[in-house]
Amino acid sequence: MQSADAKFNKKSLLLALRRYSSAISDMEQTILLPSLLRDVPSDEVWDSEAAEESCEDLYGNYLMLKAIRNTVESGLIPLDDHKTKNTTVLNKTLEPLLNTDPEALFRFHLRGLFSVMSELTEKTRSLTDKYMDIIGAAN
């Protein structure tokens, strides 16, 4: 009998989303006392300035990963995200892509989304493992 994941291609975005959701569920079931993550320095490097400010400790990482999960599952993006100054900078760097083939643009964004979901899954698993180390449980 095939597993549910075997139905999807190894590089499938749906599989990446499913892996991320599974990693978050495991994190939520494992981390029973998130307050133990407070004041534990994070060794993860986040790209965004806003992420760096809110994720100075593992507790901040935990809250951010849960917030991202809510956004992924709801599919809703706050209206404020469309008005940020970073959007204009991003549009300027992507201008050459906007004039290209729509299929190439789609593939570019799909690869980016796949990469982001894979990285978030890895960070979620790493946070869960660090929590297990903190409480002294074997992995």
One letter per element, helices H and strands E, the order comes to: HHHHH
Average pLDDT rating:
79
> How far is the first residue's CA from the last residue's CA?
28 Å
Query: If you compute it from the alpha carbons, what radius of gyration comes out, rounded to the nearest whole angstrom?
Result: 17 Å
The biggest beta sheet is recorded as: none
Helix-and-strand structural type: mainly alpha
Q: How many strands?
A: 0
- The percent range for helix content is 55-70%
Shape: elongated
The stretches of 5 or more residues where confidence is low (pLDDT under 50) are none
| Share in β-strands | under 5%
Number of helices: 5
Task: Give a verbal description of the structure.
This protein starts with 12 loop residues before the first helix and ends with a helix. Helices cover 64% and strands 0% of the residues. Helix 1 runs parallel beside helix 5 and helix 3 packs across helix 5. With 139 residues, the protein is mostly helical. It has five helices and no strands. The chain has helices spanning 13-30, 49-54, 58-74, 85-98, 102-135.
Please provide a brief summary of the model.
The chain has helices at residues 13-30, 49-54, 58-74, 85-98, 102-135. By secondary structure, the protein is mainly alpha-helical.
